[in-house]
From TrEMBL:
<dbReference type="GO" id="GO:0016853">
    <property type="term" value="F:isomerase activity"/>
</dbReference>
<feature type="domain" description="Xylose isomerase-like TIM barrel">
    <location>
        <begin position="22"/>
        <end position="269"/>
    </location>
</feature>
<dbReference type="Pfam" id="PF01261">
    <property type="entry name" value="AP_endonuc_2"/>
</dbReference>
<dbReference type="InterPro" id="IPR013022">
    <property type="entry name" value="Xyl_isomerase-like_TIM-brl"/>
</dbReference>
<keyword id="KW-0413">Isomerase</keyword>
<dbReference type="InterPro" id="IPR050312">
    <property type="entry name" value="IolE/XylAMocC-like"/>
</dbReference>
<protein>
    <submittedName>
        <fullName>Sugar phosphate isomerase/epimerase</fullName>
    </submittedName>
</protein>
<dbReference type="InterPro" id="IPR036237">
    <property type="entry name" value="Xyl_isomerase-like_sf"/>
</dbReference>
Amino acid sequence: MMEVGIFAKTFAGPLPDVLRTVEDHGLSRIQFNFSCAGLPSMPDAVDASARFFIQQALAQSPVTLEAVSGTFNMIHPDRSVRVNGLRQLWVIAAQCSWLGTNLLTLCTGTRHQTDMWTAHPDNDRPDAWYDLRQSLDKALELAEHYDLYLGIEPETANVINTVEKAAQLLKEVRSPRLRIIFDPANLFEHEPLAVVRQRIARGLDQLGDAIRSVHAKDRDASGQVVAAGTGRLPYNDFIQGLRAIDYRGNLILHGLSAAEVSTSVAFIRELLHQT
């Protein structure tokens, strides 16, 4: 049965406080980010003291990990940035076993120099696809080494910016280690609702077997990201679509403030109950 989870970094404070806040909202699954433990999101190292601190916090909480964020710009125009991101990804991968998850989430990247969530016209060039394949092939090596899965998501600002490109990548790579993180709000910005519904339905149809986790946020009429249930996304249709493909994972909230969590949790749970 689908459950509601959340990005841990939605809440501020030391990790034990974050986990208690997650629990207070009636949630038990998080996408973990090392920034929640006072480290960079992409750490250069996780020393023994940091590991002990995280382990103790998790041991004292019923909250478990859906995934760990390992997002860096996989097609950054500066090769050294990509190399460093892969090195840091190895550091994160080495922690996944004791963290209790086998899913790493990635960002397929953009040619934008300073923001990996901002689109760039060069994202559609063949050399951008080539660099993605190079980075992804190396990431798959660490996934094999540590028995992990890598989750990518179609995202309008990134090189994999359509369902079709995600399907093409899965076909080319042909690795059981590569999975999809499906976020319907990443498939549109200003398009009419009929187009939004069409893209979501096509995404579930083409990527369904590979979907490992679902992210839940929303977009308003201006295209800005807002909390799930406060925008234009047809969530009732979306959840029915997830049931139709027999999706058995969770819905992980993000793109919202701490003050909005209770309302979004109630919104999603009511839909899960209705459908």
